[in-house]
Queue: 2 jobs
Job 1
Amino acid sequence: MPCTSPRRMKMRFPPLMPSTSALAGTGRLFSRQSINDELGLLAALIGTLFIVWGRPIADPIASIAVATVIAYNGVKLFIENLSFLLGRSPGPEFLAQVERVARSVPGVLGVHDLRAEYIGPETVHAGMHIEVRRGLPIEEADRIAEEVEQRVHEGIPSGYCFIHVDPVGKGGNIHVHD
């Protein structure tokens, strides 16, 4: 009986953005957060002082200043993460490397529908269909999928991968699922 059940595996992937250290990135994040908090606090303090001094117009001006800081940070955060929200691909070189590793496993006759996307700075989700001989016992197809998993895991830096096993019919035709 041919195997068409999906297979999940863990993989390591290269980071999207090379960084000198995660700690430095975290430090910059906290520094930016602190500066933004201080700017908002400063605007609120100035607005309060002007109200105490008899200038009530300062309250809405201070509110606008605080809202501007919040809006600026929101837009900046959105722009920084837009590629993750849209599912940015790690690129053709990466996909070719995954395909090469999968095809190197004996019993894999082909790879198709290979897709990958970043879901964070260093996390990639990927999926692929591997083709095996039609009529191959499910145990053998499972062994092949496990070997693909092992080789991809060893050869490629982490995320998740979905592997679907497809039987290939006579003449290389892939079985179409109804």
Job 2
Amino acid sequence: MIRECLNEAKILMALEEPDYRHLIERMLKHSALIDAADSRRVCDQILERDQRMPTALGKRIAVPRYISDQIDHNEIIVAINPAGLPAVSSDQKPVKILFLLLLSATTAYADVLAQCLRLLNDDAIKEELMKAKDAPEVYRIIQRWEQD
């Protein structure tokens, strides 16, 4: 399910953006669903939603999302940030793995979100993702986890 929404070009490695906004903006540049003209508006909506319901979940992960009936399928963009990014989370640990979900309101998007949360709840997988050398390795880790 994750693999249908993700490809290696949407896995960004060794990012060291200064803050959450810059990271989301950079990730949106890799979206096939959000054009440059809408990027700022989408980023603003993601951050506004995050203020109401934080998506930095603790354990060094964040899963921000944008849900719209204006997009026709789901897309995931992954960022691995080894230095960590300060974010408000229950454990106050910096975010190192971020899954940005761009979800179509007309699909079973809750299933995609649930699958991402299951994957990121696996501590061994998170460690593998943080140690991965490149995007193809991250993709293989996710693929192997989904096949198990």
